[in-house]
Amino acid sequence: MSSTGQSNCRSIEKAKRDTARKLIARTEMDDAMIAEIAGLPIDEVVRLRAESRH
Fold first, then answer.
1. pTM above 0.85, yes or no
2. What superkingdom does the record give (predicted)?
3. Which of 6, 18, 48, 50 has the greatest CB tally within 10 Å of its CB?
4. Which pLDDT score is estimated for 1?
């Protein structure tokens, strides 16, 4: 993969994590729903939620 392609993948993953963080902070959705909406694995959402509590 080219460096541009890798950069785009990282940008997309960052955007997904940012979306999940916003949903965690601003809604009472459960982790499974956030994972589905953000396009992340549920374990990643669980990790992000744990980070947000610190």
1. yes
2. Bacteria
3. 48
4. 65
Tell me 53's DSSP state: T
From residue 22, give the alpha-carbon distance in Å to each of 1, 18, 53: 30, 6, 13
State which residues form the domain around 38. 3-52
Q: How many CB atoms lie within 10 A of CB 46?
A: 14
Provide the domain count of the chain.
Answer: 1
Ordered mean pLDDT values, 10 residues apiece, the chain (54 residues): 86 97 97 98 98 90
State CA 11 to chain mean position distance. 12
The pLDDT of residue 15: 98
